[in-house]
Amino acid sequence: METRKKRDILSIATVPLTMTLANSMLIPVLPAMQQALKISSLQASWIITAYATVAILFIPLAGYLSDRYGRKAVILPSLLLVCVAGAAAGIVAAIGSRNAYGLILGARLLQGLGSAGCFPVVLPLVGDLFKRDQDVSQGLGLIETANTFGKVVSPILGSALAIWSWYAPFFAIPAFGLISFLLVLVFVKTPHGSDDNSSKRVGLGAFVRSVLALIKAEGKWLYCIFAIGGIAMFVIFGSLFYLSETLEERGMKSIYKGLVLAIPLGGLCLVAYLSGKWIGKNKARMKWTSLIGFAIATAALLALGLMKRDGTWWIAALLALSSSGIGAALPSMDALLTGGIDKDQRGTVTSLYSSMRFIGVAAGPPASALLMDVSGGALFLVAAGTALLATLLNLFAIRPER
């Protein structure tokens, strides 16, 4: 990989890192938010879900706009919106408005709108930068590593900031967002000719028809990769919500809670990085790496569903195994999708994939809150069932040789 492009990749990687911090950093603070805002566990989960829900709706539009007007033209204004909305949420919380919960939800919706134009555009931008499949795979592995590294440090950082105040994480989001904005603005150079594509020369209607035709022609494997991405995020965020609530009930607070939450996410980050380097440009290796990863995740979640969950470290260890399995799969899914789509439609199609991932992010916490009212076993059996579905989809529907 060229030295200059390594600088580009590192700058681009700050975008998913910032988007992850903007959401995951709040997970360990949710119990404190419940007390401060006098809301239920389910209402608190909507602070996470609101961010993801609006992103789901606008990600496809952001993908189209990035294909038509350029990646940076979409990413930069979106980063600024994330910063403004984060500051607004922090100010509302600090003032202690009577309708603080509703106003924070509104700010989170705006923040989700900004996130719709950030991480989903990153994947096609990496594909634009490189010509060799191996470089694309390594670049996407680094992007997933940045994304998962954000998940690792976010509970620690969120817990540390919460020592000062439960709303401090809201103010941290604009700080990280501005750093990412400056790095992308200064260091990321659009490849020559990457903006000269057919999506600039056709209208929205014609472009949508061409994308629908592509999905119809390639539908089977595309639908499966979309579903697998959604399942991965559903399992990760649902498990994190359960672990955060469980640690709070067992009296673990402050930065110690963040460190325990970081254990499964550390496995996710490390294995995603190693997986991105391992798969290279070998599409068969991508399929089997993902398949084995989800099989391991299924087994770990099933064990949590069937066995007693008395030991905190036992729960954290099995969740680390589950997350590591998912970490093995994510770079493979990114590379299969990015490598299988032409540049002209890459932004739109990868944005649909990102929408499905955000559906998983949005559904995970409230589903966990509802299932926890039944039992922890029910939660993990449902999670194991969804991971098994991803394993089967990978086995039967993804055929790299075709």
TrEMBL record:
Q: Which UniProt keywords apply?
A: Cell membrane, Membrane, Transmembrane, Transmembrane helix, Transport
**UniProt similarity note:** Belongs to the major facilitator superfamily. TCR/Tet family.
Name it.
MFS transporter
Pfam families tied to this protein: MFS_1
- Keyword Cell wall biogenesis/degradation recorded: no
Which residues does the UniProt record annotate as the domain Major facilitator superfamily (MFS) profile? 8-402
Q: Membrane-spanning residues where?
A: 12-32, 44-66, 73-97, 109-130, 142-164, 170-188, 221-243, 255-276, 288-307, 313-331, 352-372, 378-398
Species the sequence originates in: Cohnella cellulosilytica
What subcellular compartments does it reside in? Cell membrane
The record's annotation in PANTHER family points to:
CHLORAMPHENICOL EFFLUX PUMP RV0191, PURINE EFFLUX PUMP PBUE
Highest taxon above the source species: Bacteria
Look up and give the membrane topology term.
Answer: Multi-pass membrane protein
Coiled-coil positions: none
Note the Gene3D superfamilies from the entry.
Answer: MFS general substrate transporter like domains
Q: What is the lineage of its organism?
A: Bacteria, Bacillati, Bacillota, Bacilli, Bacillales
